[in-house]
Predict the structure.
Amino acid sequence: MLLLVIVFVPDAKAFFIKGLMKIGFYKPDIEAPKEDVADLNGIRFKDAKGNLVDLGDLKGKVIFLNFWATWCPPCRAEMPSINKLYSQFKDDKDIVFIFADADGDFPKSTEFMADRKYGMPVYKVESDIPEKVFSGALPTTVIFDKQGRLSFRHEGVANYADQKIIDFLNKLKSSR
């Protein structure tokens, strides 16, 4: 019975995955090599107020981009850690956070964030996304350095409140 609840109830599955995260599972590997994505220009996202963000315009900033969905248990499981990371860096002018709701359903995703008291801004995809960046797996997190190079890419759940990620963002932020 418990197994059925974990399998079929997204919040129960997310709770189980969060427990695994706390004991050390799902630590992201940040040793990924840097690679160029053809061009960040034209990769666009829209926020709930209708403002467009083009990744090409963010050169000189570190970009933390997370693709997620409200119905995705691994996405739900990693959200508290991402919210903690976001809270730590939200006022940092050198880092931009984009939380792209894969469904593009602003009413549902903004309500999801508000119900859980997450401060993260929700976006939806407004252009084609290169497969090197997002191939459709949820959750997917990518981090671009200040030069627009893909510095980190992880498909699946991870603990983004981990000190390695914090150090990694600070390192990217301070590099030229």
